[in-house]
């Protein structure tokens, strides 16, 4: 999974909770230049991602890389 895709997903989920990108960034204790660098380089520290996830009310979960996990993540397994 590419980092930009993950960041887009975090921003998308935050938007569903009526949090703008700026609000999410502020809640995470980050500055806009940090987000711009992250998106342009495609690289950052795990702690930065974790701050964004927490601010959006999300958490990172590690699952096996297989078809069943993909279906479960998409809500297609059950």
Walk me through this protein's architecture.
Helix content is 63%, strand content 0%. By secondary structure, the protein is mostly helical. It has a single domain, classed as 434 Repressor (Amino-terminal Domain) (Orthogonal Bundle).
| Overall pLDDT confidence | 90
CATH architecture: Orthogonal Bundle
CATH fold topology: 434 Repressor (Amino-terminal Domain)
* Number of domain modules: 1
Spans where pLDDT lies below 50 across 5 or more residues: none
CATH class category name: Mainly Alpha
Q: Whole-number radius of gyration?
A: 13 Å
Order of helices and strands: HHHHH
Number of helices: 5
How many E-type strands? 0
Largest sheet: none
Distance between the termini: 24 Å
Secondary structure category: mainly alpha
β content, as a range? under 5%
Outline, from the CA principal axes? globular
Specify the helix fraction band: 55-70%
Topology:
Blueprint: H1 3-16, H2 21-27, H3 32-41, H4 46-55, H5 67-74
Keywords:
single chain; 78 residues; mainly alpha; 434 Repressor (Amino-terminal Domain); 0% strand
Give a quick precis of the structure.
This protein has 78 residues and is mostly helical. 63% of the residues lie in helices and 0% in strands. The chain has a single domain (3-74), classed as Orthogonal Bundle (434 Repressor (Amino-terminal Domain)).
